[in-house]
Amino acid sequence: MDAIQGILINHLIYADDITLLSPSVTGLQLLINLCVSYAKKHGIVFNSKKSECIVFSKDKLLNHDHLAVMLGDIKLKFKERVKHLGHFIDDNLDDLYDINNRCYDFVYRANFILSAFRFAHHDIQVQILNTFCTSFYGSVLWDFYSNSLDCIDVKYKNAIRKIFNLPRHSRSSIVHNLSKSLPCNVLVHRRFVKFFISCLNSDNSLLSFMANLAQCKSITLLGKNIRFIYNLYNVSLFYRVNVHMIGSLQDKVSLTVKYSADEIASATLVAELVGILDDEGSLEGFDPVLINDLLYSISTAR
Fold it and tell me: Which regions of 30-120 does DSSP assign to beta strands (E)?
């Protein structure tokens, strides 16, 4: 296996989670044997049911049966997809399944919040939604060139529409103004800027080296995402940037999202109409049908 800065990286350990890396089955078996030997000496037991193997390759291997990797006396299974620290990793390194899984998780969390806090004011529901449902953990390592990222923003806008009881085809500009938040893909791109600059200036020399390497090689995932951020937002991460520049560069990403005065006024009017519908019991001469028709017309007008 190739060394990084003269250091061989063939194992990654986080808490009780161990990942072994090898360019060959023979090398992987040697690493496992070392782990088994250490475990026996220190009274550690590895769970074979939770231990899996995966082969990363652009060319799909139709059958892994001929590959034998043993954990003690037990033959480990080869999978096309494994779950690592909450993320799904495919053997072809495609992000689609992991992104879709994050979409499902968002929908589950959003529906729970909308149900549990259905009697709360709209602004409170939006604040809770933004706080507890938009972390998108690990999204900074997704491939930004994938259109799959759009699915999360679609689910988010649908959640906002449900909070304000708006039609499903309400204008996106109105929905995002009501949410007081950036589109989800822009939110992720902002986080990537902070993530990459933090890696670049990390005290961990290996992490810093990998970030510097990504600046030079656009074939890596990080390198491709750096190029994407530059092309879309004109935010350059190709030079030596420090942590003090994170805020200004993130703001540069955010400023690309602009709404016209008419769009902002429409969103404000929609919020007021929704408030009127909520206070119908305290208003004389209130015609909910008329208000709903007006709300529909404003929120869906193109």
Answer: 52-53, 70-71, 74-75, 77-78, 81-84, 87-90
